[in-house]
Amino acid sequence: MITFEGVTKRYPDGTVAVDDLSLQAPTGAITVFVGPSGCGKTTSLRMINRMIDATSGRILLDDQDVRAIDPPTLRRGIGYVIQQAGLFPHRKIVDNVATVPYLLGWDKKKARARAMELLELVGLDSKLAGRYPFQLSGGQQQRVGVARALAADPPVLLMDEPFSAVDPIVRASLQEELLHLQSELHKTIVFVTHDIDEAIKLGDAVAVLRVGGRLAQMADPATLLSEPADDFVREFLGKDRGIRRLSFVPATGIRLGSVPADLELDEDTRPLGWRSDGGLLPYGTFNPERDSLRAALDAALLSPNGTAIAVDGDGRAIGVATRDVLDEALARHGTRPEKRVPDPDREVPASDPRRAES
Amino acid sequence: MITFEGVTKRYPDGTVAVDDLSLQAPTGAITVFVGPSGCGKTTSLRMINRMIDATSGRILLDDQDVRAIDPPTLRRGIGYVIQQAGLFPHRKIVDNVATVPYLLGWDKKKARARAMELLELVGLDSKLAGRYPFQLSGGQQQRVGVARALAADPPVLLMDEPFSAVDPIVRASLQEELLHLQSELHKTIVFVTHDIDEAIKLGDAVAVLRVGGRLAQMADPATLLSEPADDFVREFLGKDRGIRRLSFVPATGIRLGSVPADLELDEDTRPLGWRSDGGLLPYGTFNPERDSLRAALDAALLSPNGTAIAVDGDGRAIGVATRDVLDEALARHGTRPEKRVPDPDREVPASDPRRAES
Amino acid sequence: GGSDPLTSATPSNAPASSGGTSAKVVVGSFNFPESILLGSIYAQALQAKGVTVEEKPNIGTREVVYDQVKSGGLTVVPEYIGSLLAFVDKTSTAKTKDEIVAGLQAKLPAELGVLDPSEAQDNNSLTVTKDTAAKDKLTTIEDLAKVSKNFVVGGPPEFKERQEQNFKDVYGMEFKEWKPTGDTTADAIKSGTIQVGNVFTTDPKIVLNDLVSLQDTKNAFGSDNVTPLVYKAGVDDTVTSTLNAVSAKLTTDTLLSLMKQISVDKADPPVVAKDWLTQNGLL
Amino acid sequence: MNDEPLVRWDWIARNWDNGGPSAIRTLLESHVVMALLPVVFGLLIALPLGVACARWRRLYQPTAGLMNVVYSLPSLVLFSIFLSFTGLTQSTVIIPLTLFTLAILIPAVVDGLGSVPEHVRQSAVAMGFRPLRRLLQVELPVAVPVVLGGLRVATVSSISLVSVGALIGQGGLGNLFIDGWQRQFPTPIVVGIVLIVLFAILSDGLLVLAQRLLTPWSRARRSAA
Amino acid sequence: MNWLIDFFGTAANWSGSDGIPVRILEHLEFSAAAFLIAALIAVPLGLLIGHTGRGGFIVVVTANAARALPTLGLLVLVVLLIGVGTVLPVLIPLVVLAVPPILVNTYEGVRGVDADLRDAAYGMGLRGRQVLFRVLTPSALPLILLGLRLSAIQVVSTASVAAFVGLGGLGRFIIDGLATKTYSDVIGGAVLIALLALAVQLGFTVLDRVVVSPGVRQVR
Ligand SMILES: Nc1ncnc2c1ncn2[C@@H]1O[C@H](COP(=O)(O)OP(=O)(O)OP(=O)(O)O)[C@@H](O)[C@H]1O
Ligand SMILES: Nc1ncnc2c1ncn2[C@@H]1O[C@H](COP(=O)(O)OP(=O)(O)OP(=O)(O)O)[C@@H](O)[C@H]1O
Ligand SMILES: [Mg+2]
Ligand SMILES: [Mg+2]
């Protein structure tokens, strides 16, 4: 648990970057700081590992004031990932990852073994270990950055816009990777971004900051979407709040009807299309075990008759949700999505995204 | 009209960047090339203004083979905008914009007057004219880049990921700006991006390329979303295809009911919330004149009772769309959204986005 | 000038003890080939007698070298008695060899001494081209003094300072301009940049370039016999007797022929020195 | 001017190693010492000074100004000034050349440290490096390409400048220039120039090699830049 | 200080054909001539090679080797080969000295211009030559000027070797002062040379202000 107690940062030039900030980042959860440029996200983050010292107020790491800890020692226990990865250009990937273990005086072999393990964990081929950073793509470098931050198994991870320099496709995969990692590691993560979609996708709790470094709202993403505290937050959340918060409602609750006759199936009962005069019409599918209500709605909208086809993990049709059933589900959960709570004890299989994110 | 006729580009090292590409970019429309990294978008674009020469095949600009035109002359008639703006650091903004007019031998006063006009057109304060590029933010530089490309009023504009270096918020505003400009200028634009959302937002026609430089599908965005040609395109389009294509259906067609009694209004008949025991509940609104079906659906999902409130331009409630009405509209338009056709003759007022984009 | 930085020199290789054969003898030379040759002759002769020798050839002008000897940084340097006296006693009027040696003994500081002068002389001279000599009918410096106001004179940089007053005193001679031409003096005379130049009488370029040295009828330059200048504390009897034996064999003609080998035939000073020493039984 | 050939090969053969103080080999050896020691000393001094200048920027302006003045002094002047202090020793050449080297190396070290990307520095801090260790293990290694670039220029200049020392009797191969000049004899001059250039190219080549070996991580960047 | 007073305070030092003003003029004469020749050779060559990208490696290697050419050695060799009497023998070594910094900096300057900028320029329809002179050169100007400045300072300081072969210039005070151990002259000459170098430095600072676009200056 990281606690901000009335923290204020005033830079020597008079800029108040963070103003009386009080909040808690729960242990084992991802807390996202989000807000427009210059709202003090980076400053807040860097006060945790004392890259910047607060002007007033306290920051507690599990009840211990960070000010009481010698900064290098404090920092070795906190992973830190930044936008440009900040890899050491002169060290091979494996040694980059082993940096903190070396600092902590691990023996070289052990440190390297640990590094190799981490490279695998973040999904990098072990043959990249002997390369230098310039030989890696931006996305690979970011992965190395994450591995490096994890090397000494710190309980806390600070991430400052770690994915904002890579292209959207790679970015999405890095986000997935992070969620997947977190499902195994249960770190206490503070994540900074200015992208509200990323915040909602990743955050167990989202703190929206406004310029001047004041907290506008802190809530879990679903609550944030349904109940923005004020116009600033509403504006910041942007369009599609209603649709987006369906992402937090699992599709498991939907009452499925039996597969209707006009749905053409192949021999494995995988759907092929809706029969019609002009041939087969397009259809949409969702997996009630894994997907959210949003995916179900999308599937319904892709079918001409508004009926979403439920499929299992192998793509076999297991039932349908008609528009009426869907409407009912939407009415039931639409306005009050279940709160998501971080559940550090639940182990999620690697192949399975932890969330009901569509 | 720009026509690719069996165009192939093989680099000296043997890489085939573009393979037998045939397509047409219609006059007065925005044609977007989209596809994963390395699929030959840039190469295709640059063959149009002969920054790169095709290995075989022809590119026609209004029936004239570009190979028949001296490259510098050709290029002066084609605006070109790139990611990093490529502004000349040693020239003031106004002179940057006036580059091509100067090249064409315009007199200095006229060229500068034209530059000032363009700066205004792209939404830049005229007091920036005397600055140097380093004194501008990334977004402002991109705007200058666009202004510069437009300076000699070329009929054709080539844009290579022009907005990908700026942050998402600025990016969105640049996209709006481009649509707005295009609604006034009706250029023939070829726009390259690897972001499918951007492609769908901006394109009148979208060409999806696959690695190896082959065309996977070319269609207007709505068709693309409803009828992806194959798995590659479907994969590339990503999730929410059903919801996203609602963006292309205007909300005008929805039958509105009268404002129900349990909706609390202020004295100006602006909605305040749904009455309930626990106080006012959240609500969602849409503007049937301007918004799409997607916005209406979103509004419905924000209301506890699934009813979307229709408001006018001033935010006054003018009716409601109940879930049933909405379902009906969705059923009617859901699967076959109207095709969007570029309509160069229709003048759209500046304050009004041209599209039914939610 | 102001305070003199060279006097504060504290050379690292000053002899540790005064006298004694165990000490290393440092043989230096001026920055012209003849001096380098003489230095090499001294050094090899001493080496043959088992003296430990270090050579530092080609150091610089007398102004620089003198102080190094005085402070013990150099032990032996081939000198020219007339020029040396003029250097230590600007007012001296001594002209003959004996006068000069007497003058030196009186004026040299206690730590320095000269050994027996050799017969070999290498006088400074004023030299002109054959054409100039013919045109103005010049054979002596006296002849030159009559026309010298029209002439530009050149020589090593130190030439003006040393000789300007001397010429006035002895010949009443003044020049139109003094140009420091250094090692290019002979070429400068030939190319006409200067009309008169200060060239050593043993310089082979005089012959090579068809130049004429004017006779120093009034002995303005004085006798310039070659002799070793020594740092007294650094030399013992072996050194002294060896060098005196060398000087006894050196003549002006010897010097001229040796210098011709070096400058014209491009033979190397150490080799020339060695050959000569061998021929004269000094090795 | 006359029939003197540009190079008399037999002279070279005779004088390569004639045992005397003016043997080409001896001169070459002293040239190497007088050229390379300043570079070594210069590097040893420039590293701490450069680090200090990079750390306290206001120190840099005056230091750089002073170095500019030193650099604009003719080397002969510095040599002769030091002649009065260090006499006819190699130090008279080595000390001034060390100063010249500093004029090149201090900016190189400052620029080198400046070339360390801020995000690399920051992530070192964030990982818990203490300042000295950060300097030694991160900042200086990353600065190596730029510092080596300066070192190359310094080495080559130093090798070339030693020859001026011949004017005060300590010039290594430069003595060949004076010798050849006084005897109107091109051979020693040519030999001196050729040996100096060869020595410089060799040293430069070794430095390039060192750079390759020390900084495999910047090879691509260099060829791309 | 005494030396400076001796040197600058002696009226005789200020007049005549070997007075300070004449020496300064002579010094400037060969420095300027050598510098201009070097600039005329190196700037166009650097621009061309930087622009076409051909032969860049050779240039950098040769330039570094050329830095190693000892000025004194070249000077005496040239004098031996072509004789004294003109300034030519001094110009050759000085030009050799002055070319490498200009060439390398010009080349690096042009080559270092952002590839996107080049791209944008061609994309707008500038022809090769226009790209070079209107875009690359102005952008590379700070580096080109840096090369010119370094070179000019080296030339001014090294031009003193002219005195060694009997030519004039401020080197006379140094060489003659050394020969006659007149330290005031040596120091005086050195101070004058340092002042000239300082003036060159200042001149280039001013030039930089005037010719380099503020847009480019700030980027660096
Ligand atoms: N060292 C500093 N000195 C003075 N002001 C600073 C300093 N660092 C940051 N600021 C100011 O403090 C405010 C907050 O900065 P901070 O970097 O924390 O913002 P941010 O939310 O991370 O912004 P971004 O999204 O652009 O990274 C800004 O107004 C910034 O200009
Ligand atoms: N000059 C070149 N020589 C050789 N291959 C090249 C060259 N330029 C591009 N390519 C290759 O051609 C292919 C297409 O390149 P292109 O730049 O057109 O892709 P792109 O779609 O624009 O990619 P991105 O989204 O990364 O910009 C790639 O495989 C690329 O590596
Ligand atoms: Mg930040
Ligand atoms: Mg591209």
From TrEMBL, chains A, B:
Any one GO MF annotation of this record: ATP hydrolysis activity
Boundaries of every ABC transporter domain copy: 2-237
Cross-referenced PROSITE patterns: ABC_TRANSPORTER_1, ABC_TRANSPORTER_2
Keywords, in A-Z order: ATP-binding, Nucleotide-binding, Transport
Keyword match Transcription: no
EC nos: 7.6.2.9
InterPro entries membership: AAA+_ATPase, ABC_transporter-like_ATP-bd, ABC_transporter-like_CS, P-loop_NTPase
Keyword Chloroplast: no
Annotated stretches, region: Disordered: 330-358
SMART domains: AAA (SM00382)
Class of enzymatic activity (EC top level): translocase
Family affiliation: Belongs to the ABC transporter superfamily.
Protein name: ABC-type quaternary amine transporter
Source species of the chain: Planotetraspora kaengkrachanensis
TrEMBL record, chain D:
Residues in ABC transmembrane type-1 domain copies: 28-206
A Pfam family reported for this protein in Swiss-Prot or TrEMBL: BPD_transp_1
Keyword Cell division: no
Membrane topology: Multi-pass membrane protein
Primary localisation category: membrane
Transmembrane intervals: 32-54, 66-87, 93-114, 135-168, 188-209
Domain of life: Bacteria
Stored InterPro entries: ABC_transp_perm/SBD, MetI-like, MetI-like_sf
Record-linked PANTHER family: GLYCINE BETAINE/L-PROLINE TRANSPORT SYSTEM PERMEASE PROTEIN PROW, OSMOPROTECTANT IMPORT PERMEASE PROTEIN OSMW
Name of this protein: ABC transporter permease
From TrEMBL, chain E:
Higher taxonomy: Bacteria, Bacillati, Actinomycetota, Actinomycetes, Streptosporangiales
Transmembrane segments: 30-50, 71-99, 131-148, 155-175, 187-207
Keyword Membrane tagged: yes
Domain of life according to the entry: Bacteria
Subcellular location: Cell membrane; Membrane
Family: Belongs to the binding-protein-dependent transport system permease family.
Coarse class of the protein's main subcellular location: membrane
One GO cellular component term noted in the UniProt record for this chain: plasma membrane
Designated name of the protein: Glycine/betaine ABC transporter permease
InterPro entries xref list: ABC_transp_perm/SBD, MetI-like, MetI-like_sf
Lipid bilayer topology: Multi-pass membrane protein
Keywords from the UniProt entry: Membrane, Transmembrane, Transmembrane helix, Transport
Annotated GO biological process: glycine betaine transport; transmembrane transport
Every ABC transmembrane type-1 domain range: 24-204
